[in-house]
Amino acid sequence: MIKDTGIKHQKHNKLDKRPRKLQPRIILSLLLLFTGINVLSWNSKAFTDWYRLAIFPIWTGTLGRLSGLFAGSVGEILIIIGIVLVLAQLLLLPVFVWACIKKVREKGVLHRLLSWDLRLVCWVLVYIYGTETLNCYVMYHASTVEGQYFETKSSYGTEELVRAYSIVVAQANRLAGQVARDEKGQAVYSGTQAGLYQACKQAMRAQGQAYPYLDGYYPDPKPIRASHFMSQQHLLGIYFPFTMEANYNTVMYPLNVPATICHEFSHLKGIILEDEANFFGFVACIESDDVYLQYSGYLSVLGYLARQVRESVPKEIRSKLENAQEQVVKDDVFLTQEAWGQVEGKAIVPTEMVNEATHVFLEKNLTLNGVQDGIQSYSRVVRLVIDYYESQ
User: Could you tell me which residues come within 8 angstroms of residue 53 by beta carbon, excluding any fewer than 6 positions away?
Assistant: First the structure.
């Protein structure tokens, strides 16, 4: 009986060790798979277009539904956990160094701690790399909206720019008096938050008739708890590839919300280029039946168009154009002065430093993924707006 027990115990130990031995192989295999998909996307637009249309919706429909079970932003919580994990690694670093110097191999508490910690870090990094690849990096190399859906000229001139700008200004002026406002004169949505979310979903699904990848399931957008810090970064919204969530800033002026939600919804459908997400935020809102969404859509591109008009259109032509009304100018803001005061009052790190760090991160992220003009690419929405009106 004693010998039998010993044999069973040895077999049990071997079974316990088998998963641990498999983990490095699984991790390596996943890293090679994700890297292969990444490389393939850089070299085959046909593969990337097929992936965005046929495979990418699976991640929105599974991971997006799972994170959608939670009321708050799961991605925001995971980022906080990640920060804690990094700090913990820094605290454990001296232990790691000491263990390496002493060549700790005995299977005691320290050995198990280091082994468990290393596996955890490896799996976290694999998950981040995998979700970033499958839900973000690949789509940077898909066919552009302009190339797929618009018969474009090689270049547009003053006439086309002025036409698009004039339409947007006129519509913004028309709608400024039609939205509900509070006692301070600030625009407010007349329905419920759930109603606003549903209106944005309907607006995006309607675009699925013209752009098939926009059809299908949309989870509820998630308000960011740390919106004051988000405001320091000058961010209206953010897409988390590792949780498939569309998040928005709750401190920004309310009229930014619908276009921002639709912009982030675009990312959930594989539209990763920022100018294209800006475009779909615009077109989904202006083609909606909801006046509040329409006004938000026109405001979302007004600044880009106005800047291009100032830079490209001769003064004698600009002087004859319709100007945005005073109310439109007031509504076309990121944050009110009151909101900025709250942001600065709660700031732990200076806003200028936070904004600069965010700028550098976004610039590097875009250029590394093949977007050579970096953050400037956001303004390419002007060309897409012109495409849209020229195709009407």
Answer: 212, 213, 270
| Mean pLDDT rounded to a whole number for the chain | 88
Strands, sheet with 237-240, edge to edge from the N-terminal-most edge strand: 222-223, 245-248, 237-240
Alpha helices in 250-373 (DSSP H): 257-268, 274-286, 291-312, 315-318, 326-331, 337-346, 351-368
Within 8 A by CB and 6+ apart from 110, the residues are: 95, 99, 104
**Amino acid at residue number 189:** Y
pLDDT digits (tens, 9 = 90+) for 295-327: 999 999 999 999 999 988 899 999 999 999 999
Give helix 257-268 / helix 193-207 axis angle, nearest 10°.
Answer: 50
**pLDDT in the model for residue 384:** 94
Measured CA to CA, the distance from residue 302 to residue 332 in angstroms comes to 8
Helix (H, G, I), strand (E, B) or coil at 245: strand
CA-wise closest residue to 231 among 96, 336, 374 = 336
* SS3 per-residue string spanning 153-171: CCCCCHHHHHHHHHHHHHH
The number of angstroms, rounded, from the C-alpha of 45 to the middle of its chain's C-alpha atoms is 22
Query: Any idea of the CA torsion for 365, 369, 374, 377, to the nearest 10 degrees?
Result: -130
CB-based burial, 338-377: b 16+ in 10 Å, e otherwise: ebbeebeeeeeeebeebeeebeeebeebbeebebeebbeb
pTM: 0.88
DSSP state of 53: I
Tell me the CB-side half-sphere exposure of residue 366, using CA atoms within 13 A. Answer: 18
Q: For residue 2, give the 3-state DSSP assignment.
A: helix
Helix residue ranges, H only, 136-235: 145-149, 158-175, 193-207, 227-232
Closest CA to 388 of 178, 255, 200, 211: 211
What whole-number distance in Å separates Cα of residue 16 and Cα of residue 112? Answer: 14
Q: What is the pLDDT of residues 193-233, one digit of tens each?
A: 999 999 999 999 999 999 999 999 999 999 999 999 999 99
Q: Look up residue 214 and give its two tokens.
A: 């926009």
**Residue 110 in this model has a pLDDT that exceeds 80:** no
Reported confidence tier of residue 13, pLDDT bands at 50, 70, 90: low
